[in-house]
Fold this sequence. Notes:
The protein has 318 residues and is an alpha/beta fold. The protein has one domain (7-317): Rossmann fold. It is built from 9 helices and 9 strands. It has a 9-stranded mixed β-sheet with strand order 3-2-1-5-4-6-7-8-9, with helices on both faces.
Amino acid sequence: MAKTPLFVVTNRKIGKDGPTDKRADTLSYFTGKAGADLTKFDNWVALKGEAFVKALRAEAANFPLLPDERNTEQKHVSLFVHGYNTDWSDGVTRYMQIKKALYDAADLGVLVLFSWPSNGSTAGYLPDREDARDSGPQTAELFVRLHEVVAAEQRLAAATNDPKKMCRAKISVIAHSMGNYVVQKGLAVAAKRLNSPQLVTLVHQLAMVAADVDNDLFQTDRAQEEDGSLMSNLCYRIGALYTGLDDVLGASAGLKHFGKRRLGRSGLADADAVWDNVFHADVSDLIVKKDIHSAVFDSPKSLALLEKLLRGVDRKHF
Length: 318
């Protein structure tokens, strides 16, 4: 079982007792002390942005350089974005569980937590949605930084004609619940900052788990400058895992009153009319019927499917 360092990026304001549910103007970076209780903020060590990038590059430099036919074995630098009603401690706990159950167990690579200022309260749905939307530009900053690292290494490999200098990591994202809205807004802003590049894959695999976003987000008849089009352009593949059993998302749709069903509850509005790198999978028969909104992370069969999605296994062979 491989173990990699723990990393957190957050736009929570850091108070005297640790991260709060208020949004900061800048991102903060941390790495966890090995073997410590990481639900306690004192056991996280602050990093500067440059040191964070350096640490990630050092981890990725140790990844094997594999031939194309072994693409699914390539390791990842991944971002996990938690959902609503999640305070700092809850987010860290879920992050560590996913890291242990998936990334360490399957030797998948490095997982980074992005902790945005959710209020950690079921009554805080609407304030959380505002924080999720407003976290978009800062999430974009993180995506652009990852893009610059990958692009720099690709340019170096091309300039020196040395394939060994190529980036050895896939960039992937797992977003849960309203964390998908954070990612939606972040990728849309990142695409505009990068001038909507047509030949660049920023995220290899985007896994949208119980996504609290509109289920027609990726319809091809929507405008090119809308979020779904911008997201599909920056991602090699987008997979949405959904179940009609998710009553949390049923309540979310009721709160919005916009007439749009939730992607994580109903799947794509029209799976035949979306960008061809977008698909959905019903996980109703794969999850343990308990705490259904987060059951994908707690059920062995759905975790196995999530691993296949991240590795890039063809959707017909799930």
